[in-house]
Amino acid sequence: MAILAAFTVPSTLRFLMPRRAGAGRTEFDAGSVQDYAATTVSTRWIRRHGVWVVRDHAGLFALQADCPHLGCTPRWEPQSSRFRCPCHGSLFSLEGIALRGPAREPLKRVSIRRQGERILIDPADYVSLEDAESRGGYHVMI
Ligand code: FES
User: Fold this and answer.
1) pLDDT tens digits for 15-59?
2) Is residue 67 within 6 Å of ligand 1 at its C-beta?
3) Residue 135: its pLDDT value, please?
4) What is the CA radius of gyration of the chain?
5) Is 102 in the pocket of ligand 1 (CB under 6 A)?
6) What pTM does this model have?
7) Is 72 touching ligand 1 by the criterion CB < 6 Å?
8) CA–CA separation, 84 vs 141, rounded Å?
9) Looking at residues 65-70, what average pLDDT do you find?
10) How far does the centroid of ligand 1 lie from the alpha carbon of residue 32, in Å?
11) CATH of the domain at 117
């Protein structure tokens, strides 16, 4: 019984209490626009701030690296241009839209703004994709 518990308890705890990236979440200087190559996802701020910075055809936006299912940190897979959650397999598009469950909601958009040539991101200020599109301010145009 003890041997069975030794093998099953860690994985059960990992399932129930998923790991999250970016413990300290306050606004930070994310560098300049030139630091982000066209049509790529930067994973540079995942460990420290829990966000990805995505550069698309129009500009930059930031995604919160918390899976909307139970909060694990998905991984960026450049070969398929998808975010994949290692906990239960949810799949998200480059824009953060849920393509496969169990997650049904998209990844959250994080506040991003430009101050001169600098990019400032506030991981504590995030909204749903729909709210980000209607409010503006969650996409820096280039
Ligand atoms: S936490 Fe369950 S799929 Fe991401």
Assistant:
1) 544 444 555 568 899 999 888 887 789 999 999 999 999 998 888
2) yes
3) 74
4) 16
5) yes
6) 0.79
7) yes
8) 27
9) 95
10) 32
11) 2.102.10.10
Asked if residue 12 belongs to a domain, the reply is no
3 domain-assigned: no
* Cα of 115 vs its chain's centroid, Å: 22
Task: Give the range of the structural domain holding residue 134, as residue numbers without chain letter.
Answer: 20-141
Using DSSP's 3-state secondary structure scheme, residue 73 falls into coil
> pLDDT, tens digit, for every residue of 71-123?
999 999 999 999 999 999 999 999 999 999 899 999 999 999 889 889 999 99
Q: What pLDDT shows up at residue 24?
A: 54
Whether 8 is in a domain gets the answer no
30: tokens are: 């994310």
- What distance in angstroms lies between residue 10's CA and the mean position of ligand 1's atoms? 17
Distance 133 CA to ligand 1 centre (A): 24
Has residue 13 been placed in a domain?
no
Cα 57 to Cα 5: distance, rounded to the nearest angstrom: 51
Domains held by the chain: number: 1
- d(CA 109, ligand 1 centre) in Å: 18
- CA 141, CA 60: separation in Å to the nearest integer? 7
Tell me, using a 6 A CB cutoff, whether residue 88 lines ligand 1. yes
